[in-house]
Design a protein that fits this description.
Stores iron in a soluble, non-toxic, readily available form. Important for iron homeostasis. Iron is taken up in the ferrous form and deposited as ferric hydroxides after oxidation. One of its GO terms (cellular component) is cytoplasm. The chain folds into two domains: about 35 residues; about 170 residues, Ferritin (Up-down Bundle), CATH 1.20.1260. The relative contact order is 0.12. Helix 3 runs antiparallel to helix 4, helix 3 runs antiparallel to helix 5 and helix 5 runs antiparallel to helix 6. About 75% of the residues lie in helices and about 0% in strands. The chain is built from seven helices and no strands.
């Protein structure tokens, strides 16, 4: 604990020295025009640790959650229309959509908190299945399989980023990913895997009744 305290103090001192040097250079100038046009406080920011190395990765991960959120929203709309009328599935995918959206917002806030900025043009680093990436009018069982695959991709990418954060010795990012993403993602993957398995077993008997009962079940638990 003492060693961590010393390292933290050294980190703060080092950062302060860099910022102090910038301020000293600016204040040493006498011309106002030079102050406003040519000099910047480039080291007086919230960046430390491995944020510079991780920023693009985190931007891509945030955009991946936004993309997934819209996919779930479209799936929710599909099952909520008058033809499908599967309120349970509608609620399930709306909940997953809202969760992915909230996680993306939280991650964007964290990036800026660490002194970075968000780039919405940064593509996600995981690839979706080309065969069904644009297929949103799915059957109930296929929609669960698609949802499970999407959540597994997000979870796997989160684990990869966690390893990267450790590589760059940024415990803060690693802890953030564990707390805000990895723990909850494992729960969601388990639940969706259970839903997929349960519905598949029910379909072996009477498909129409099975889907109706399963949708009723989803309405009760959500």
């Amino acid at each position: 604990m003492f060693v961590l305290g010393v390292l933290y103090a050294v980190l703060i001192t080092t950062s302060a020295e860099f910022c102090y040097k910038d301020v000293e250079n600016v204040c040493s100038q006498k011309l106002t025009s030079v102050l406003s046009d040519d000099l910047t406080l480039s080291n007086c920011n919230a960046k430390y640790g491995g944020i510079d190395s991780m920023q693009i990765e985190l931007q891509a991960y945030a955009n991946g959650h936004i993309e997934t959120s819209f996919e779930f929203l479209l799936m929710s709309t599909h099952f909520g229309n008058y033809e499908s009328n599967r309120v349970g599935f509608k609620n399930l995918y709306r909940k997953l959509s809202d969760s992915a959206w909230e996680k993306s917002i939280d991650l964007i806030k964290y990036i800026t908190k660490r002194g970075g900025s968000m780039n919405f043009n940064q593509l996600p680093h995981f690839k979706k299945n080309e065969k069904d990436s644009h297929v949103l009018e799915l059957t109930e069982i296929h929609s669960l399989a698609k949802a499970l695959d999407s959540q597994k991709q997000l979870a796997a990418e989160g684990l990869r980023l966690h390893i990267q954060a450790k590589k760059y010795q940024d415990a803060a990012i690693a802890h953030y990913l564990e707390e805000k993403f990895l723990e909850s993602q494992s729960d969601v993957v388990r639940v969706l895997a259970g839903h997929t398995s349960d519905l598949k077993n029910m379909l072996d008997r009477d498909a129409s009744v099975a889907i109706f009962l399963f949708d009723e079940y989803l309405q009760k638990i959500l």
